[in-house]
Amino acid sequence: MLPERKSLVLDEHAAADWIRDGMTIAIGGFINSSHPMALVRQIIRRGIKNLTVVGAASGGLDLDLLIAAGCVKRLVTTYMGGEHYCPVAPFFRIAAQRGELDIFECDEGMFYCALRAAAQRLPSTPWKAGIGTSFPEINPEIKQYNDPVSGEPMLAIPAIKPDLAIIYAAHSDAFGNVQHVGTGFGDRAMWRAADKTIAQVERVIPNEEVRKNPLATSLVGVDAVVRAPYGSHPFAAPGYYIEDGEHIREYVDAGNAYAKKGDRGPIEAYLEKYILKPKTHEEYLETIGIRRLVALHEY
Amino acid sequence: MTGTTTLAKDFTIKELLATFVSRQVRDGERVAVGAGLHVPRAGILLAHLTRCPNVRLYVVMTFTNLTKEPRMEPFYTVYDYRPAKWAEGYIIHDDFQEDPRIVSDTFVVGGLQIDKFGNSNLIGVGKDYKHLDFRGPGAVGTLSMAHYVDRYYLFVQSHDKRILVDKCDFISTVGWGQGGSDGRKKLGIPGNGPVYCMTPLCIMDFDETTKHMRLKSVHPGVTVQQVVDNTGFALIIPKDVPVTEGPTEEELRTLRERIDIEGMLRK
């Protein structure tokens, strides 16, 4: 007898078992939206170290939190801030100024070149924008060369291959057919480049729902699916909730205490209260509280 | 401009700058509307609602047209999903790499530093990249956008010598490179580069031959000397420096009643 099609749904602990010290991990979303935070918090809880963290194309405070918790060795992103909440991410800023962080300096065009090269199993892809800037100097992995056809100067952007992409989406069925609400930002590029992808979703929906609108399937086949309602909190989730500005400000205040006064007390308290003490995503949500969560509606 | 062309009397510098931005937009273009900078955002929407009904607006990862929208609900971030209710189509962010020109014909670039040839820096301030005095947020998409768009505009929220410098410590976006009208061509960079640099004190443009920054107009109540004193390089000062033209009554009404309903430009 033919066995049943296999469900790819994992709980957050089983999914986090895929993440190990020293890996290259791509993290989906965009600035203050759509990050797989239940999994990001598991990374911190487990004390995973020496990660190369890729993105998002415009990263944000999700990556800053990983830097604050000491998980990051190398960073690949184009922007580290929180728009009007915070012009420059605090832990990133200090670590960068002290030379403690290995940064692959790039812009969005270069960022996608690096992922595209990985997806196409190429050593690099060409990009033109960046000639005449400081990028080839401050990022020696980007090489200037003359195009063999036209002779004009070009930049070779090296492939960056994530071992694993963890992305956030609204929906997936149990078989890894992911349907974003909204555009999905650069999540497709990460999925194409990475060896494996885990989608953390708001809801696991029936396969019949996916088949109603296959055009909406944005990632056709990820490797594992984790259900985590309110799982992008404190960041936004298109179609579900806006970002939790009050919580983001609490984090930024803790970051500024460190960046401006060298005081790690507030961030240690933040990490203890919101990440280390709650052992699961459900306990995290209990800490945030139902009133706060339901107040984050879009309309 | 539609309706009255009588110039308004009472307006803020931010409203003046939004009006200046609006006059740079050409009907029928694709125009990216950033979210974080209130002034350029309001200026582009003002052009759309008063003069440019065929502009294809790029708003929070969507394309849209807002001419029938009675008033703009506020959006302050590039990821805010709520304005997606207006969408005619989505931009998949990495599609930018497939065809950068689908996004916009024009762009606004800020900077920690901007130099006399319009090169700009979002990387950081300091001499040693590994030990910067101040680490900036990073280039975002400015470098690739400014490379591919038809033309772009520099915008800073304060006019001072730390920002307007002789030479950037690092260049994240090339303006006119080392100067000269062939400054971009020599580097093989397409597009018409930075056109104006807008600040709370003045508008600057670039000398046609040297592409060195030049004072174009000062805002009402600002003196040429004030601009010179707060600029970190020798600005070209023409013989006649006019006052930057403000909004018409119609433009100001549209700004206040349909675009800037929260009054961010009046604060």
Question: How would you portray this structure in words?
Answer:
The complex is a heterodimer of chains A (299) and B (267). Chain A has 2 domains: 234 residues, 3-Layer(aba) Sandwich (Glutaconate Coenzyme A-transferase); 36 residues, no CATH class. In chain A, the strands form 2 sheets. In chain A, strands 1, 2, 3, 4, 5, 10, 11, 12, 13 and 14 form a 10-stranded mixed sheet that branches. Chain A is α/β, with parallel strands linked by helices and 299 residues long. The longest helix of chain A is centred in the C-terminal third of the chain and has 17 residues. In chain A, 34% of the residues lie in helices and 22% in strands. Chain B has 267 residues and is α/β, with parallel strands linked by helices. Chain B has one domain: Glutaconate Coenzyme A-transferase, CATH 3.40.1080. In chain B, the strands form 4 sheets. In chain B, strands 5-10-12-13-14 form a 5-stranded mixed sheet, with helices on one face. In chain B, helix 1 crosses helix 2 and helix 2 packs across helix 6. The longest helix of chain B is centred in the first third of the chain and has 13 residues. Chain B is globular. The mean pLDDT of chain B is 93. The chains are: A alpha/beta (299), B alpha/beta (267). At the A-B interface, helix 4, helix 5, strand 7 and helix 6 of A face strand 9 and helix 4 of B.
